[in-house]
């Protein structure tokens, strides 16, 4: 799938009804009528949503007589997952570098705080009886 396919997938999932349909199809295949049941919309409107999901490659319906099962296509989800994970990995590497810098700064600060505390004042021996 190309970048255009990725755009179609994300575009199709921009609608909450279609996201809900995809979530329901992740549990198993369903007919258009079964998918329409929880919504206050016509079956024709459900078919329009299914067409967008089909065009994006998220679902498929085999040819043949009605009722035809609607099936979730894993390849489209894999495409999104690959894109998301690539960017997640970049962000995680950035945060790991930041964590390393912060840890180094904290260690330097700790060293400065404890290093200064053990020094004597100039002109004193550090003995408790010294004024």
Polypeptide structure, described:
This protein is mainly α. Helix content is 63%, strand content 6%. Strands 1-3-2 form a three-stranded antiparallel beta sheet. A hairpin with an 8-residue loop joins strand 2 and strand 3.
Q: Can you describe this structure in just a few lines?
A:
The chain is mainly α and 131 residues long.
H and E string: HHEHHEEH
Distance, first to last CA: 81 Å
Computed CA radius of gyration, to the nearest angstrom: 30 Å
**Which shape, going by the Cα principal axes?**
elongated
Number of strands: 3
Sketch the major β-sheet. 3 strands, antiparallel
Q: Can you give the helix content as a percent range?
A: 55-70%
Number of helices: 5
What's the mean pLDDT score? 86
Low-confidence stretches: none
Order the strands across the largest sheet as they lie in space.
1-3-2
> In terms of structural class, how would the helical and strand content be classed?
mainly alpha
Strand content: 5-15%
Q: What keyword list fits this structure?
A:
3-stranded antiparallel β-sheet, 5 helices
Task: Please specify the SSE layout and strand pairing.
Elements: H1 3-12, H2 16-25, E1 30-31, H3 32-36, H4 43-55, E2 59-60, E3 69-72, H5 74-117
Helix pairs in contact: 1-5
């Amino acid at each position: 799938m190309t970048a255009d396919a990725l755009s179609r997938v994300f575009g199709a999932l921009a609608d909450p009804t279609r996201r809900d349909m995809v979530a329901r199809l992740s549990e198993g295949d369903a007919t258009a009528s079964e998918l329409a049941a929880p919504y206050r919309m016509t079956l024709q409107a459900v078919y329009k949503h299914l067409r967008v999901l089909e065009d994006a490659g998220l679902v498929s319906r085999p040819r043949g007589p009605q009722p035809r099962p609607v099936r979730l296509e894993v390849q489209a989800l894999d495409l999104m997952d690959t894109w998301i994970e690539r960017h997640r990995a970049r962000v995680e590497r950035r945060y790991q570098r930041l964590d390393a810098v912060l840890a180094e700064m904290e260690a330097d600060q700790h060293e400065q705080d404890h290093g200064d505390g053990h020094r004597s004042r100039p002109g004193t021996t550090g003995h408790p009886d010294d004024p």
